[in-house]
Amino acid sequence: MSENSNNHVKRGLKTRHVSMIALGGSIGTGLFVASGSVISQAGPGGALVAYLLMGLMVYFLMTSLGEMATNTPISGSFAAYAGKYVDPALGFAMGWNYWFNWAITVAVDISTAALVMKFWLPHMPGWIFSAITLALILCVNALSVKSFGETEFWMSLIKVVTIFIFLAVGVLTIFGIMGGHYIGLSNFTYKQAPFVGGLPMILAVFVVAGFSFQGTELVGITAGESDNPREAVPRAIKDVFWRIILFYILAIFVIGAIIPYTSPDLLGSSATDVAISPFTIVFKRAGLAAAASVMNAVILTSVISSANSGMYASTRMLYSMAHQGFAPKSMGKTNRRGIPIAALAVTTVIALLTFITSIEGPQIYLWLVAASGLTGFIAWVGIALSHYRFRRAFIKQGHSLDELKYHATWFPVGPIITLILCILVICGQNITSFANLDWEQIGITYISVPLVLILYIGYKIKHKTHLIPLDKVDVSPSDLRDEEK
User: Fold this and answer.
1) How far is CA 353 from CA 141, 343, 455, in A?
2) Residue 318 lies in a domain
3) Which parts of the sequence belong to the Amino acid permease/ SLC12A domain (predicted)?
C-alpha cells in the first residue's frame, strides 16, 4: 500500500462514536457475568458500595484525561502526556505498558470468543472461531477509522439495549408482574445481607470492580481521530459517567434483589459460563425461555467489541510512540486511509503469537496474561500523575483556568484520590500470597509492576532524563494531530 506523505491518522470519529466507544469499552463480561461473584462475596450492599466508589474514581480519572485531551488532542494520548508533563521515561514506560496490555488482551478475547461459541457448536475446534474473530477485527481496523467507529457504535448499542431490557424485566420481576410472585427487597435483608463481611470484603471486591471499568480511558485514545475533540470528549465524559453509574448500580441492585447472595450460581460466576450469568438467571426467573441463547449472543458481542477496541487502542498507542521517538519510525507511517498499517500488523502478529502459546504452551500464556493484568491500573496512575503535573505547571506559568476548554472536577482532590485508590488496588490484588509467601503467585499477580519499572529505569539511565521542571512543561494548547509528521 502506498503511504500518505503526511503520515498522520485521519479524523473520522463523530461525537456519537466517541461517546459510545467510551461507554461500550467499560461494559462487558465484568458486568454481564462476573458481577455475580462480587455480590456473592460482599452481598448486594457491599457490591453497590464497591462499584459506586470505583465509578466515582473513574469519573475523576476521565475528567483529568478530558482536560488534557481537549487542550492537546493526540492519538495515544496519555503516554504522550506522561512524557510531555512528567518525564519522557514515564511516557516511554506508559506507552509500551499500555500497548502490551491491549495486544495481550486481544489474544485473550479471541480465545474467549471460541469458548463462548462452544455454547452453540460444542464439537467445532475452538481455533476456527478464534481465527475468524481475529480476521474480522483486523479487517475492521484496516478499512478506516470510521469503520471502526461504526462497528463499535453498533456493538456497544447492543449492550446498552440489553441492559435497558434487563432493568425493565428485573423491576417487573421484583414486583411480581413477571415471574409469578412478589420478591421486593427481601434478599437485601436475607441472612448477613446487605453487607457481607463488612469493610474488609468491600475492599476485596473493590479490586474486582476496578477491572469492570477498564476501558473507559479509550476516550483519550479516540480524541486524536475525533472530528471535534473539544466537543466530543467533554460530552463523552459527561454521558459515560452517568450511564455507567446508572447501568452498573441499577443492574447490581436488580441482581441483588432477585438472586440471594448465597445462591451457588453466583459463586460460580465466570467470564465464559453464560448459563450462570446473573443476567441469564434473572431472565429465566422472569419466564423467558430463550434467555441463555440471547445472553450468549450479547456476551459474544461484548468479547468481539473488546478485541476490536484492543486492536485499535494498541495500534494507535504504537503509532503515537513512533512519533515521540519511543518506537521505530516505521510504526508511525500510515496508508492512504490514515491507518497506521505497520503498527496494526505488528500488534496482530503479537496477538496471534500469544494466542498460539495458549495452545502450545499454556504456562507461557498464563504468564503473558498475568503480565498484562495490572497494566490498566498502572495506566490510570500515569493519567492521574500527568494531570496533576499539567495543572500545577499551567497555574505556575501564569495561565488562567478560563483558557482551558474543559475543567477537571475537584482538582487536586480528583487526581489524588485516583492515585491513592489505584495504588491500593494494585497492592491489594493478592494480599494472601504475601501472607503465605507464595512466590509463584506473587510473581504471576505482580509481574507487570517490575516490567514497567524496568522500562522506566532503563530509558531513564540510557537517555539521562529528568523530571521536567514545572516552569519548563509545555502546556500551550495545540492540536498535535496536525504536528504528527
Assistant:
1) 19, 15, 22
2) yes
3) 17-466
How far apart are alpha carbons 315 and 73 in whole angstroms? 17
- Structural domains counted in the chain: 1
**What is the reported pLDDT for 276?**
65
CATH code of the domain covering residue 440: 1.20.1740.10
Asked if the structure places residue 194 within a domain, the reply is yes
Distances (CA, A) of 463 to 95, 373, 453, 457, 468: 16, 28, 15, 10, 14
Q: How crowded is residue 399: how many other Cβ atoms within 10 Å of its Cβ?
A: 15
Element (H, E) at 71: helix 35-71
Domain for residue 350, yes or no? yes
List the one residue out of 230, 278, 339, 239 whose CA is nearest residue 24. Answer: 239
Are residues 216 and 22 in contact, defined by beta-carbon separation less than 8 angstroms? yes
Distance separating alpha carbons of residues 69 and 80, to the nearest angstrom: 11
Look-up: residue for cell 410472585? 181
48's grid cell: 453497590
Specify whether the CB–CB gap between 233 and 74 falls below 8 A: no
Nearest to 38 by CA among 280, 215, 246, 271: 271
Number of C-beta neighbours around residue 176 at 10 A: 12
What residues are paired with 212 via a beta bridge? Answer: none
DSSP 271: T
Spatial CA neighbour of 376 closest among 452, 457, 459: 452
Helix (H) or strand (E) holding 82: helix 77-85
**Cα–Cα distance for residue pair 338/125, rounded to 1 Å:** 36
Report the chain's mean pLDDT, rounded to a whole number.
85
What would the pLDDT profile of 149-204 be if each residue is shown by its tens digit?
A: 899 899 988 988 999 999 999 999 999 999 878 999 999 999 998 999 888 888 77
Does any domain span residue 466?
no
Measured N-to-C along each axis, helices 291-324 and 15-24 cross at an angle, to the nearest 10 degrees, of: 110
